[in-house]
Specification:
The complex is a heterodimer of chains A (about 500) and B (about 500).
Chain A: H1 3-8, H2 10-28, H3 32-53, E1 59-61, E2 65-67, H4 69-94, H5 102-118, H6 123-141, H7 148-179, H8 184-190, H9 199-216, H10 225-232, H11 235-259, H12 266-287, H13 293-313, H14 320-349, H15 367-370, H16 372-386, H17 392-412, H18 415-439, H19 447-450, H20 457-475, H21 478-490
Chain B: H1 2-20, H2 27-47, E1 69-76, E2 81-87, H3 89-108, H4 117-136, H5 140-149, H6 151-161, H7 166-199, H8 206-209, H9 216-233, H10 241-249, H11 252-277, H12 279-306, H13 310-331, H14 334-365, H15 376-379, H16 381-394, H17 401-416, H18 418-442, H19 462-480, H20 483-496, H21 508-511
Antiparallel strand pairs in B: 1-2
The chains are: A mainly alpha (about 500), B mainly alpha (about 500).
Chain lengths: ~500, ~500
């Protein structure tokens, strides 16, 4: 392995080093604040190595790992999101009983899994990253065990996610049996042309694999676990599951499709189109009936992944891969910021040593009067999820519409767009329901409405940064668009 | 640059008003008034600009230098999106109306809003900023951006400060306008991508997109995306159901904004975007649009007649009046276009005043039911006289602005389609019926058996009267000497003709 290759691996190496240090430190230094600071500093150092690596990409390191701008962009996103989650989690954990330091170890391990995912170019590293991410999440979801809901959520995720991984593995095995390779780069030759008698293997293998991935992305009809897990998991972990976990898996899915040119597979895309329509409609419709903010956000994230699929599917157009990567990347950045912010509010609301998170809509009533800053931040997040101007979500939604319209104009039908419009319309209703609850004039006798929430320092800064970024990128998105564009141009599309 | 400042002042005013709430509950409305005063001065200087040639810019629509004021700044170069603002006669009239009614709205909310006055003023100012943005945007993305910006604050105005059924009404308003807005977004994007396919350039620039070659069916569908979004806002039959609820439940200031300004964005959009961008589809839709307008005139009037809720009655009368605007736009000659613009302005004044009256009555009697009123003139003579004036304006009495608008629309439509004119002219009769009924049930006669007036009903004070008098003067001016308005709008409307297959009949300016 040459020096350049080692430098290219620096983000992974530094991540692993930080994890080892944290692992060794925890037994000797039971100090939540210290461990949190250590993790955050480690994450920032890894971030610095990512930025440093940009000079030598793209580079293939071993057949397993491809470090290119695409990978680096998502690594950066994952790192920043993990920092936000780490800070939110500190406020969330500090007043709870028991020893909480291991949370950071698990969080870093999960983030490493996600980072491995986004730079893998081989099924071996893909599965490695996926399992590292998944297994850390089982523990994270149940982290400070606070009764049955948490355990139920963790168990549900463990079993269902295990089944999904099995599907994925079996699908991979079938594809390997047909093509004799696990590397994305080598697959492209054999994927369509030489399928021949093995066509059935590849078809079934791809279907199984996609089922597994759709489960992890919680797309309809593989979404059943989402609301329960979102509700049961601690709010910072929910934020992590919703952003880092889904984002990384989506990134690798897109990579896989582009690198193996799986876009030529019309039947797969047809299936994904149906999944997208179902996710947009079912996600938004089911969210209407919820009374828990976390469950609403869970269903809304199902719908958002459906929107993302619209951009994804646009990759089949002539020259559409660039548009798909660009639209999906921007939408994901918007989704990361917004979702982190939304769950950040829930997390701040749920601080203190309480049995379950404060996620009933009723407990958000009158928040504008009690905590104007928090309520404003939450409103900004919800409006961004709804795709209203001045927020980053608007530009994200704009990209999705652009991708959808291009697909429709290229005579792939308007059904995706129709579902997108109907879904967005329904979505407004439940986002505004939360905003409306917050604007309610609080009744003086209501105990939940008069409860004072202290905004913690770390969480407060996270929210301020997220809200600021959300508005800045909503008003002037050009810098991010140009960054993503330069990344897209560097890809061999 | 001055246009950008006009918008920034309104945005900033909203933020400052919100912050001012922390100091003193009375400050926010003063802050709003101050910033609106600045905007008013800016607009006034625009009106007073030394105008080249015949008194106004008579340039080609595509000649950007022909615009009174324009501003250009590259915003999102990736898609050819620019902050491109321009002001011509039509925009100028609309912006002037917006800022003026903004002042009226602030005054009408003066003593009505106790809960979170700062946040109220914030929403009010941001709505105004969005509307001004809509009237001056010459980039379709920017236009859509402002189109959406004005929705949320308006939603909040209704949802937070509205009356008993505000939740339902605000949601209905939002869903109608938002979903139709998304149809417009799809149409805008389709237009841009089709333009990109033929030219290889991404652009949202209005001038670049004007000449886009579209096949007949595609052009029709894209036109429909714009058309529905604007007709929902107008509101035209059958897209009007949101209006009555939103108006009835909204606080007075929001009703003033909604009726006075927001409805006009729909008409403006039709004139500025729908027709010029899709000239060939215009021919296909025009008869149907005029029929919808006529249906709106008659149906709105019938519904208004059937109401017992004072605000609902005014709301449905808006449907009727805006029906004339829709007919006027799609009859598309100089008479009807001028008539539509005149009707927009006059309707803005008269309906805003009527909503203020309705709000004032509700504030005093705690009801909007006309069955619980009657004989109010005796109790509040000043208010009664003012109400009579605006009721008469609304029913189209010659000498006031509304008459000029409706008359011109009917006169011009007669050249295009006689049956439509005949049916729409019935609207003048029905307007008299429902307007006078409203007047009789509220201010005249004796209090009904159900009426229970609190002691010491307060008549209008100096503050309200001065605003009302301004609007009265405005309506009289429009009705007696409308020529300046025609002169301002004429170059724009005349140029628009070059984008449609219709021939351009003799200019109105030379006739009047």
């Amino acid at each position: 392995m040459s020096n350049t290759e080692l430098v290219a691996l620096l983000p992974l190496i530094s991540f692993a080093t930080v994890i080892t240090i944290v692992l060794l430190a925890i037994p000797f230094w039971r100090n939540l604040k210290g461990i949190c600071a250590l993790s955050v500093v480690g994450l920032l150092i890894s971030l610095a190595t990512i930025l440093w690596t940009t000079r030598i990409v793209p580079i293939q390191v071993t057949p397993l790992v491809l470090i290119d701008q695409y990978a680096l962009l998502f690594m950066t996103l994952i790192c920043l999101a993990t920092v936000a989650v780490a800070l939110l989690a500190y406020d969330y954990l500090k007043e709870r009983e028991g020893q909480q330091e291991e949370f950071y170890l698990l969080l870093l391990l999960a983030a490493l899994g996600a980072i491995v995912l986004v730079c893998s170019s081989h099924f071996a590293s893909f599965l490695l990253g996926l399992e590292l991410l998944g297994i850390s999440l089982y523990a994270l979801i149940s982290f400070p065990i606070r009764g049955q809901a948490t355990l139920e959520a963790a168990l549900k995720y463990l079993i269902l996610s295990g089944v999904a991984s099995a599907f994925l593995l079996f699908g991979t095995a079938l594809i390997f049996a047909a093509l004799g390779t696990l590397s994305f780069n080598e697959m492209v030759q054999g994927f369509y042309v030489d399928v021949g008698s093995n066509r059935l293997y590849v078809m079934v293998g791809s279907a199984l694999m996609l089922a597994g991935i759709c489960f992890k992305l919680s797309l309809v009809p593989f979404h059943m676990w989402t609301p329960d897990v979102y509700e049961g998991a601690p709010a910072p972990v929910t934020a992590f599951v919703a952003t880092v976990s889904k984002g990384a898996i989506f990134a690798i899915l897109l990579r896989f499709f582009i690198w193996t040119d799986a876009y030529q597979y019309e039947s797969i895309l047809f299936g994904l189109g149906i999944i997208a329509v179902l996710s947009m409609l079912a996600g938004n419709l089911l969210a209407l009936m919820q009374s828990s903010v976390k469950r609403i956000l869970a269903y809304s994230s199902i719908a958002h992944l459906g929107y993302l699929l619209v951009a994804f599917i646009a990759g089949r157009l002539a020259g559409g891969a660039a548009l798909a990567v660009e639209a999906a990347s921007y939408f994901l950045v918007a989704y990361f910021i917004t979702t982190l912010g939304a769950f950040g509010v829930v997390s701040i609301m749920s601080n203190g040593n309480r049995e379950r998170d404060l996620d009933d809509i009723a407990s958000y009533e009158g928040l504008f009067s009690r905590r104007p800053f928090l309520a404003t931040a939450f409103t900004a997040m919800l409006l961004s999820l709804a795709g209203i101007p001045l927020t980053v979500g608007f530009v994200g939604k704009f990209y999705i519409f652009a991708a959808g319209v291009q697909g429709a104009l290229a005579s792939y039908g308007w059904s995706l767009l129709v579902a997108l419009i109907i879904g967005s319309g329904i979505g407004l209703y439940y986002y505004l329901r939360i905003v409306f609850a917050m604007t309610k004039r609080p009744a003086a006798t209501d105990s939940a409405a008069t409860e004072w929430i202290t905004i913690p320092v770390a969480g407060g800064w996270v929210m301020l940064t997220l809200t600021g970024t959300l508005l800045a990128l909503g008003v002037y998105p050009t810098p991010l668009i140009e960054l993503i564009n330069s990344m897209v141009r560097s890809l061999p599309l | 640059m001055i246009l950008l400042w006009l918008i920034i002042v309104l945005f900033a005013g909203g933020v400052v008003a919100w912050l001012a709430e922390g100091w003193n509950k009375d400050w926010p409305r003063w802050v709003s008034l101050f910033f609106l005063g600045i905007s008013l001065i800016i607009v006034a200087t625009l009106f007073g600009n030394p105008l080249p040639g015949d008194g106004f810019v008579t340039g080609n629509l595509t000649n950007e230098s022909a615009w009174l004021v324009s501003f250009y700044w590259s915003w999102i170069p990736r898609f050819g999106i620019n902050v491109q603002l321009g002001l011509d006669g039509l925009s100028l009239l609309m912006v002037g109306l917006t800022v003026f009614l903004g002042v009226v709205a602030v005054v009408s909310s003066w003593s009505e809003i106790d809960h979170r006055p700062g946040f109220f003023q914030f929403n009010l100012m941001w709505t105004l900023a969005g509307v001004v943005g809509v009237f001056v945007s010459l980039d379709l993305f920017l236009f859509f951006f402002f189109w959406e910006v004005m929705l949320i604050p308006m939603y909040l105005l209704i949802a937070v400060w509205g009356h008993e059924d505000r939740n339902y009404a605000s949601m209905k308003f939002f869903l109608f306008t938002q979903i139709s807005g998304m149809l417009m977004l799809v149409a805008i994007l389709s237009l841009v991508f089709i333009h990109h396919d033929t030219t290889g350039v991404y652009t949202f620039n209005y001038f670049d997109l004007l000449g886009t070659q579209l096949s007949e069916s595609v052009g029709f569908w894209l036109m429909l995306g714009f058309f529905i979004a604007f007709v929902v806002k107008l509101p035209g039959f059958p897209f009007h159901p949101w209006l009555a609820d939103a108006h009835t439940q909204a606080p007075t200031a929001a009703s003033v904004l909604l009726a006075g300004i927001l409805l006009k964005t729909g008409a403006y959009g039709l004139i500025r975007f729908t027709v010029p961008l899709f000239p060939s589809a215009f021919v296909e839709i025009a008869p149907y649009a005029m029929a919808l307008g006529t249906a709106g005139v008659i149906y709105g009037a019938l519904l208004a007649f059937a109401q017992t809720d004072f605000k609902r009655l005014i709301a449905y009368s808006s449907v009727s009046h805006m029906g004339f605007v829709l007919i006027g736009i799609y009859a598309w000659n100089q008479y009807t276009l001028q008539g539509s613009v005149m009707q927009m302005i006059a309707h803005g004044f008269s309906t805003a005043a009527l909503f203020m009256l309705a709000g004032a009555i509700q504030h005093r009697l705690h009801t909007r039911e006309m069955t619980k009123m009657g004989g109010l003139w005796k109790e509040m003579p000043r208010m009664g006289a003012i109400a009579l004036f605006f009721i008469i304006a609304s029913l189209g009495m010659p000498g006031l602005g509304n008459f000029v608008g409706e008359f011109l629309v009917l006169m011009g439509t007669f050249q295009v389609n006689i049956p439509i004119t005949v049916v729409a002219a019935l609207g003048l009769i029905t307007a008299a019926v429902y307007s006078l009924i409203a007047m009789q049930r509220t201010f005249q006669g004796q209090p009904t058996a159900e009426a229970a007036y609190p002691d010491g009903l307060q008549d209008y004070g100096a503050r309200d009267i001065s605003v009302m008098i301004m609007m009265m003067i405005g309506l009289l001016f429009l009705g007696l000497y409308p020529q300046p308005i025609f002169d301002i709008a004429n170059p724009v409307l005349a140029n628009l003709h070059t984008y449609t297959p219709h021939g351009s009949p003799a200019w109105l300016g030379s006739l009047l």
